[in-house]
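Render this sequence as a predicted structure.
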Amino acid sequence: MRSLIDILELSTAEINELVDTATHILENPAAYAHKCDGKILATLFFEPSTRTRLSFESAMLSLGGQVLGFSEASSSSASKGESVADTIRTVSCYSDIIAMRHPKEGAPLVAASHSMVPVINGGDGGHNHPTQTLTDLLTIHHEKGRFDHLTVGFCGDLKFGRTVHSLISAMSRYEGTRIVLVSPEELKLPSYVKKEVLEKSGIEYIQTTDLEAVMPELDILYMTRVQRERFFNEEDYLRLKDSYILTPEKLANAKGDLSILHPLPRVNEISTAVDSDPRACYFRQVRYGRYIRMALIMKLLDIE
């Protein structure tokens, strides 16, 4: 039995296999409509979510399986003080696979060590979000046709953004990757990510506060929102929340085949005027999320 807690638990060959499966599902959905007949996915979301939770549920239903679970900690026994370990031991008696989101870093790892069924990390604090990263990788593959020799810009909250940390880890394994980090000083990429991921892998990277200056270099621009829920005080959030707002004017010097990604939800860091630009990939990205999660569920349940 295998769980997925961190994107680096998957080899690049396994990522390629998942991307191939997801692409095949996208092209032949009917062939997969009964792959998980009789199987149950439990979605344990101790933190609010729209896309990730519904994407998991849509994925399992599209495979012919069923879904049970809760969408906030207050509607579970966690509100009575039950431990994550006990919740997981219980829920793994009712299900074949579990997707879990938790505000505490490391909680899904604890869950996996107590579960009788595979556990998928649907996001833990500011730490990891491997299925969003798989979604991002599928999007990049569909848009660019490759993972190597790309210059990827990350803009916004690079300190708390778990999607950023996960995607940087994934992209650091591909040849010729170059990373451009754009953020306010207070929201810079944590030094442990720079040291343990970028420097250890010998990845070329630059840090800047000026998005427009680096725009012409980028093949991919990964925008993120400044996350109110990760701040300890409202003043800092209000001061930083509008640091970067992507508008059509700011894209004037961008490459014609730039791909703009965003893990969503968007607040106002991308103007709605950008949505009609063919380079805006973020709603296509949402669609890909369903197919890559279908591929992952099948893989972890050992379904051909």
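Summary. DSSP finds ten helices and nine strands in the chain. Strands lie at 40-45, 66-70, 97-102, 119-124, 151-155, 178-182, 204-208, 220-223, 259-261.
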